[in-house]
Prior knowledge:
With 131 residues, chain A is mainly alpha-helical. Chain A is built from 10 helices and no strands. The two termini of chain B are 14 Å apart. The chains are: A mainly alpha (131), B alpha/beta (286). At the A-B interface, helix 2, helix 6, helix 7, helix 8 and helix 9 of A face helix 1 and helix 9 of B.
Amino acid sequence: MALEKPYKDVPGTTIFDAEESRKGYWLNQFCMSLMKADNRARFKAGERAYLDEWPMSEAQKQAVLARDLNRCIALGGNIYFLAKIGATDGKSFQQMAGSMTGMSEEAYRDMMLRGGRPVEGNRYKHEWEKK
Amino acid sequence: MTARVTASVYTSHVPAIGAALDFGKSHEPYWQKVFGGYEFSRRWLQENTPDAVFLVYNDHANAFSLEMIPTFAIGTAAQFAVADEGWGPRPVPGVTGHPELASHIAQAVIQDDFDLTIVNKMDVDHGLTVPLSLMCGQPQAWPCPVIPFAVNVVQYPVPSGRRCFRLGQAIRRAIASYDEPLKVQIWGTGGMSHQLQGPRAGLINREWDNRFLDRLIADPAGLAEVPHIEYVREAGSEGIELVMWLIARGAMGDLAGGAPPRVAHRFYHVPASNTAVGHLILENPQ
Lengths: 131, 286
């Protein structure tokens, strides 16, 4: 029997479940390595060489090099792990979250100041498909 | 005389709040709106300093990578270091544990059918230190021992609200069977509505959050039945952290035949960075 995953119907959202975790294991473990200052320095000195030390897929490496967080998540990355890349780059969590929305940093910050993204129209995938 | 739960505290644990304090930005108007909601709480904690805080939080891929993912982990060590989450460790005091009470709770709760992971070495991240900062300001040392209790809310499925609520009740029983007259507070942290990932990032649901606060106070058993999907859909993918508040609420005396708790303080504000900030203090009547 297939597992029930009702969260697949939430738009613009990837729930990091056991399947995603399996896909993203090495991508996320690479991110964990950036918790050590020495590793952050080595990564910054040569990103491609550092990534090549990890058994990640080429697509995962390209997504990291491009800092494409949506792509990283599609390939099994989890935001709390990916945040280590942002920290290494000196980005705040708000800058990272905003970068995934297609909005400018300023527009995202203003949206949060106005009370955030409303839930109306953002509950189900079919609500986004109509747009 | 045995130990008892005197009060429960609920608060968001947004990392940017810690950064605002650490980098001296707490006086800025943006942050004053957050910290202003905790002025009462800091006075309250000074007047009601417990002998130990049982602090329910989640680790954010700091102590636990994908190598091991415990659903419930209790810190039984004497000391816990502050994690380097990638920005360098927060400049806050290390955390002193309460190994005697923690190991007592671990034994009692496991015998009560909850499978805890016992952790004797663990760095603690912003999930634990930001609530301490909000409640204590910037002291040289935290005012009392803290038992870290980490809940997996990173990799789905996280524990259900119902299971968290029942676990809180088991923790209350465990504390009440500890043979020393300690005053213990239980804190539930995380939330409220927020989503940090994907094109839907930035979601906030003020109405749902306030309904959650209402029900946490007056109808916790009903609230505990809310399924995960409602948290995700209504409060954002990271709003799921709110299940941890049900652990603290489950430990209150009214669920064991006592009187309803007194609401000492309630606060709600949007935004802190990407997140809605919620905060409650509930006291058990003497």
